[in-house]
UniProtKB/TrEMBL annotation:
<dbReference type="Pfam" id="PF00208">
    <property type="entry name" value="ELFV_dehydrog"/>
</dbReference>
<keyword id="KW-0520">NAD</keyword>
<dbReference type="InterPro" id="IPR046346">
    <property type="entry name" value="Aminoacid_DH-like_N_sf"/>
</dbReference>
<dbReference type="InterPro" id="IPR006095">
    <property type="entry name" value="Glu/Leu/Phe/Val/Trp_DH"/>
</dbReference>
<dbReference type="InterPro" id="IPR006097">
    <property type="entry name" value="Glu/Leu/Phe/Val/Trp_DH_dimer"/>
</dbReference>
<dbReference type="GO" id="GO:0006520">
    <property type="term" value="P:amino acid metabolic process"/>
</dbReference>
<dbReference type="InterPro" id="IPR016211">
    <property type="entry name" value="Glu/Phe/Leu/Val/Trp_DH_bac/arc"/>
</dbReference>
<feature type="binding site">
    <location>
        <begin position="194"/>
        <end position="199"/>
    </location>
    <ligand>
        <name>NAD(+)</name>
    </ligand>
</feature>
<dbReference type="InterPro" id="IPR006096">
    <property type="entry name" value="Glu/Leu/Phe/Val/Trp_DH_C"/>
</dbReference>
<keyword id="KW-0547">Nucleotide-binding</keyword>
<dbReference type="GO" id="GO:0000166">
    <property type="term" value="F:nucleotide binding"/>
</dbReference>
<comment type="similarity">
    <text>Belongs to the Glu/Leu/Phe/Val dehydrogenases family.</text>
</comment>
<dbReference type="GO" id="GO:0016639">
    <property type="term" value="F:oxidoreductase activity, acting on the CH-NH2 group of donors, NAD or NADP as acceptor"/>
</dbReference>
<dbReference type="InterPro" id="IPR036291">
    <property type="entry name" value="NAD(P)-bd_dom_sf"/>
</dbReference>
<feature type="domain" description="Glutamate/phenylalanine/leucine/valine/L-tryptophan dehydrogenase C-terminal">
    <location>
        <begin position="156"/>
        <end position="366"/>
    </location>
</feature>
<dbReference type="Pfam" id="PF02812">
    <property type="entry name" value="ELFV_dehydrog_N"/>
</dbReference>
<keyword id="KW-0560">Oxidoreductase</keyword>
Amino acid sequence: MVRKNKSKSFEVSMKGIFELMKKYGHEQIVFNYDKATGLKAVIAIHDTTLGPAIGGLRMWKYNEEQEVIEDALHLSQGMTYKYAVHGFPYGGGKAVIWGDPYTEKNDELLQAFGTFVETLKGRFVVGTDVGISSTDLVSVRKQTKYVVGLPEEFGGVGSTAVITAFGVYQGMKASAKEVFGSDSLKGKTIAVQGLGKVGKELVHFLCQGEAKVIATDIFAESLTFVRENYPQVDIIEPDEIYSVDCDIFSPCALGGVLNDETIPQLKCKVVCGAANNVLKEMRHAEMLKERGILYAPDYVVNGGGLIQGLGELEGYNQDWAINKTAQIYDTLLRIYQISKEEKITTVEAANRLVEKRLQIIQQIKSKYLGK
Ligand code: NAD
């Protein structure tokens, strides 16, 4: 049986896993089962041309096995692109635990997972993702040193929200330069969807830059914070955000928000936000282009958090992380240039940049074999 993924990016059948690996270029998929704790986990390593694979651990109550594999494959491929576009010597990987993070997560289960990570001898380094906090990684760390994203008191670099928002802000400035001819956001209207950890910080940068901010969230608590601290922000209902009159739409909530239903409603000239996998399907990049809306590829603009997180491996230096994140501005302008010259979408242009880098390095070296 072959089941189609919602995103149509991956189709998994137990028969077709090798075909998928060949198609999307995955090097390795490791299935882990631990009798004592009942742990069921998948570690997907997409490409280690640039270096060891690093990626978050997601714990989620998936409905079926195929969804677990799809998520691991999809997310690990995305990580390869993120590292490559930001010029890091790391490869893409992702781990997924099949289970309910609210009721099934415990120290023993996470330690069992850590044991599996250790068997890969550094070919895969694990961080946090949905369902897994920095504190959870402390349990994983008991069994393996191949962990990144620990709490500050355990040598980690702490919250990445501010630097992620700073990167998105740089992305907006570059996009404004491309579309409006100036990178000043003063007086520009920005519609922010999601006022969580990143969205709140982005509002701060935007208000400092004297932009006019319209925002929404589904949680009253997030709205209260913004109302109290930034009274100049215009709060609207969640379903009004797509059709509101604005210059830039900034999705900072969940993925898949730009789709057949929402794209026709947009009145903006630019989309630039922190959320991962903003486009429901790849074809939606073309749809935005046809509507004359410039799309800042998500994995390029939301790289600030990853940059700060990697500081943990390299020895964290705040100035270095800020400078590196500020480069998102130039990277985006380069992507926009390629997109215009080649008459392709900005997503294709970003992917092209990544694939070129991987090809060059592949000619010099091969896979990362661990220590
Ligand atoms: P968060 O959970 O703190 O905030 C998300 C906010 O979005 C919440 O306040 C939630 O209520 C709101 N929301 C959810 N659905 C909504 C809807 N339909 N309309 C309006 N608001 C809605 O998450 P975060 O850390 O701020 O991350 C935001 C996005 O950025 C996520 O997609 C995340 O994957 C991505 N991202 C975050 C980082 C980081 O450093 N935190 C780095 C890279 C990418």
